[in-house]
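Dear colleague,

Following up on Tuesday's group meeting, I ran the structure prediction for the three-component complex that the binding team flagged. I've pasted the input sequences exactly as they went in, so you can double-check that nothing got truncated or mislabelled along the way. The structure tokens for the whole assembly follow below. Feel free to forward this to whoever is handling the docking comparison.

Inputs:
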Amino acid sequence: MTMPNAPTAPVSFTRGEILQAAPPPASLVGPIGWMRANLFSSPLQALLTVVGAYIAYKLVWTFVDFTIIRAVWTGADRDACLDEKVGRSVGACWPFVWAKFGQFMYGFYPLDSRWRVDLTGIVAIVLLVPLLIPSVPHKALNAVLFFGAFPILAFNLLYGGSIINPWLVVLGWIAIVAGIGLLVAYLMGRADGSASDAILKYGAGALAVGVAAMVLVRSGMFAAPALPVVETRQWGGLLVTLVVATVGIVAALPIGVALALGRRSKMPIIRFLSVAIIELVRGVPLITVLFFATYMLPLFLERSPDAMVRVLVGVSVFSGAYMAETIRGGLQAIPKGQFEGAMALGLNYPRMMGLIVMPQALKLVIPGIVNAFIGLFKDTTLVSIVAIFDLLGGMRAGFTDPQWASPVTLYTGFAFAGIIYFAFCYFMSRYSIFVENRLNTGRRR
Amino acid sequence: MAIMTDGTVPARGTSATKVAFFNDPKVRSLIFQGLALALLVFVIYSAVSNAVTNLSNQRIAAGFGFLDQTAGFGISQTPIAWSESMSYGRAFVIGLLNTLLVAVVGIFFATILGFIVGVSRLSPNWVISKIAYWYVEIIRNLPLLFQILFWYLAVLAAMPTPRNSYSLFGLFFANQRGITVPKPIFEAGSGAIGIALIVGIIAAFAVRSWARKRQAATGQQFPVVSTMIGLIFGLPILAYLASGMPVSFDYAQQGRFNLAGGMTLIPEFVALTLALVAYTAAFIGEIVRAGIQAVSHGQTEAGRSLGLAEGRILNLIVIPQALRVIIPPLTSQYLNLAKNSSLAVGIGYPDMVSVGGTILNQTGQAIEIIAMWMGCYLTISIVTSIFMNWYNARIALVER
Amino acid sequence: MKRIVSTLALGAALGLGATAALAQAPSTTLRNIQNKGFVQCGVSQGLAGFSQPDSAGNWTGLDVDFCRALAAAIFNDPSKVRFSPLSAKDRFTALQSGEVDVLSRNSTWTIQRDTSLGLNFAGINYYDGQGFLVRKSLNVKSARELSGASVCVQTGTTTELNVADFFRTNNLKFEPVVFATADETIKAYDAGRCDVFTTDASGLYAERVKLAKPDDHMVLPEIISKEPLGPVVRHGDDQWFDIVKWTHFAMITAEELNISKANLDQMLQSTNPEIRRTLGAEGNFGEALGLSRDWVVRIVRHVGNYAEVFDRNVGPSTRLGISRGLNALWNKGGLQYAPPIR
């Protein structure tokens, strides 16, 4: 409060200027205040703080001590990691990991072909990173490359065999399906008189291209430029973990979309089938699905597919059922007005879903998809139970190498595999949270 | 698909002037369903016919007749009597009981630990909330099978050999073969104790509901908890004394290889339970945290302004409201735990999958065994869901 | 327009029909192998001395060398073989379904496997029996002292049933601890979960080297079962059955006649009619099998005779240190006996 006549009134009972606020007591601010508020607010809290801090210190110290301070970094065999030979209490035996590194990463993938795995990984990163960073342009092209072309390329590189044939097969099937679709559309058009010859031409052309591609493949003309086949039995380690998780999640998307739409469909039989599949798969553990795929699928088919293919089928169906529920959640979040708007515009069902509803729903469920991927990444460890050697399986196989048998081998393997799993999962969960926050700002308006 | 970029495709007619029969939604829906049904029938038919051929090639007789055959293998944890000369069917039942045992024990402890973690995450104590945070992050980001193996090998490594067992009063022992406790032997007349226990539990809940009604009507309080404890524990003890102490204990003795006698929790069970509890508790913790955060802060403040103590605010105001949000995801975590117990096969705990796998090996009856697994897990899922839905409906606040 | 469609359909039908017809050509296991250029051989997932991959994925062992001998006999190249590591659970299914051409995976010959699983055991390349491994510190001298012990055993094997039988017939109590793979089983035993580890005696020696301190453990003298191990093929292809059977016999005959890698060239000059018949200088038994005349020469040159294979992989000079015992030749006190090549 200032007085208008302050200068003329030399004697005043009130202060002429505002006092500088006194600093809060030392016990409320700064480190001390923070500690009082957050660590020692009551005797009980103080006790909890001390006990908690001690436990945390113990755990962290044990880990650091084992993995770094007492660790052995170089050596040729188990002698380097035996207490008796080294003359001190030994921590992690990292030479074991260096020696088995190839096995942990690639399994028994032939040494001279491992560049193919590396190349696949590099291409995957080059395509995936821009897809994950929101500000990078050309998302559509990028997505087509990653989801369309990359799987075939990865098949080329990882499995080997003819380089051109897989592309022809995929293109051929796309062309055949498109051709049949167009011909059906033409026939339907004839019935209500809106048929156009262009459709017939396109349809016949597509069918011809598809059949030609298939004939080319069958003729073996393009068997020539080929990489040596590396059977899936030789795959292993982190390679298998990533292949199973990636294939599982990529295949889960279409399965999930189909099942989610089926579950919300108005057709009773289709809805019933979708619900039955979803609930059946979600009601049982993954391991029984894997057993189903490994032991029962061969009985139901004429020829038993490759063990890896069986596992991939099992994992895809399993994650597809969970994905269906995630996507259904996204679909339910789309306001009814969007559906009605689409119908009012005269869009048919595929277009309503494909152009209006699904793009919004899928965007909403991106965090859910990333979380599903994390879950799947962790669940791939189960494939080691049906005799496919993923990272964990490779690690367990490494334990039994007599050359490296020592008391610390086991814990070294666990530390290494644990760090890898944690790094992957933690990064992905951060990314999921990042996307979630981004989406939230968009929707908060 | 039959959609082209130039938009000329009248795939499913856009003009409404003249509707062809296949553009009639009803007809089309019938066509689609017919196609789906035909596909289903075809898939089932070809699967069955292939299965019949393959089974006859492999000379496996389909059907559940094998369940009566002698199993011939041993099982390390048997809640009901077992010997090698009993049937495969009984072996499978033992596996199922072991699964249920680990699921029930796991759910019990995971709930407790999960609530502790969830509350700790929100604790004003920085150290506690950080520990809870990193606990959740680390546990959730490591595969469960990895954790089960780790616990198993860590438990084995931390325990002494049977000859150097840790011992508590010579009654309880812990070693690499498990945790051994005295085994109660119920003699004739001990049925009265069981009856007394049941009566005690019923009486305890009767007292509780009476006390609640009285409090609602008159405001008078009643020492419910101590009365309940007294009834549940006191009645069986009275019955035990009254019927002439018919229960004796079989104490563990040091045998040649291991402790003989007593009851043993095998290390596979301990490790599996530890891993499942730790893993599920991390997820439950996050659910509890979200549930508590969903209760508006005004509720807590209102509780304070009424002069309630912090504990009572939590018990009477926050948790009942949070439970509404917590229960549905909690249900799915319980189901996950029950399903995850199937990873027991990784460490040789004789659960349903592990024992079933052995039967599958010995008999080759893949279809029957897998069908039995799926049937059992589905039943467990459905029963748990029904129970939790009932509980959810009970605690749901009646909205105005 | 319709004509286009029908022409296309006809073309497609013809194309598919032609390929289907090609695939229908009659095929035998041998022709299949010659067409694809390698033998697909089912082996164990890692049993030192019998079939074990090193970290580069190169397989070694007694069972592996048998597959290499097959490849040598067929292709004159022991590297034309691919290995499928199979678990105890999957092994017979893999053979029945045609995933592998031959199973060389320490599998016990039993009547049930021979008849109801539809398999043919082509011989016995290792006479084995089930034994027990215990810690020396337990001071156990005989398996009959094992009452009350806990026993680590692998599931899906005959050993799981044998051990139950043994304890039951001797009125002993035991606690079984069952694991899905050999690796898990031995790891649990090493960690102290069990007092006893049981499997085929050969497996005991093979697994013992994986223990942290192999010298602290001993194999008990009792052998509680007969475990004749040998290569297996499926029913229905007698020619392939003969090839597998006689590849095994050829290796034993070579040992009996003292034909080894080292003296092979010398032996080719031999005038001994038995050696001449075996090496294809007289008679034409190889072609009767569907192979070449010099099939035994190929086997011995690339892989060696039975004694060489045994000594190289599991013999006394290796880490396993198994003596010939029952697996010595019949004229040296063992059971290995081959019908004559004539």
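Strands of chain B lie at 166-168, 172-175, 178-181, 183-186, 247-250, 253-254, 259-260, 263-265.

Cheers,
M.
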